[in-house]
User: Which sequence fits this backbone?
């Protein structure tokens, strides 16, 4: 299967399952992200306990890319420490900016690395980074 097909499958799978799209009880941090270009309006809810992301989920409405990118990010950062998650956000946002990444770094991003193509689709960059920007704000608090 080509990378493009894998990416499409992944986006569809996350939108269909919606396993990260729900209200998170007792969230310690809530950050809303809005992308007026596309109409994406998603809210990230994070439960931070002693420097570890113990749980996360999102709510709102947005295009398939924005919701899948958010959901994949949540899968990736759950259970990570604040510094690990910050490192992943930096890697991801750098990748979308088109900075070259080592094999090892792309591996750390797991499924999120499939969004690399967004660096060649300027109109969709904001969709694919919305969740990560929300996360960055939360982690800097
Ligand atoms: Zn969008």
Assistant:
């Amino acid at each position: 299967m080509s990378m493009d097909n894998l990416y499409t499958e992944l986006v569809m799978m996350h939108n269909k399952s919606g396993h990260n799209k729900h209200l998170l009880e007792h969230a310690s941090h809530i950050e809303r992200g809005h992308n007026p270009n596309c109409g994406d309006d998603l809210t990230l809810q994070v439960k931070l306990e002693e420097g570890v992301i113990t749980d996360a989920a999102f709510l709102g409405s947005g295009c398939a890319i924005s919701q899948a990118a958010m959901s994949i990010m949540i899968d990736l950062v759950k259970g990570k420490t604040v510094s690990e998650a910050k490192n992943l956000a930096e890697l991801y946002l750098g990748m979308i900016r088109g900075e070259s990444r080592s094999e090892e770094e792309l591996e750390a991003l797991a499924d999120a690395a499939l969004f690399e193509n967004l660096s060649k689709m300027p109109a969709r960059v904001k969709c694919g980074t919305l969740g990560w920007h929300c996360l960055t704000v939360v982690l800097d608090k």
Notes: The longest strand covers residues 40-49. Helices lie at 3-17, 64-77, 82-96, 103-109, 122-140. Residues 35, 38, 40, 62-63, 65-66, 127 surround zinc ion (CB under 6 Å).
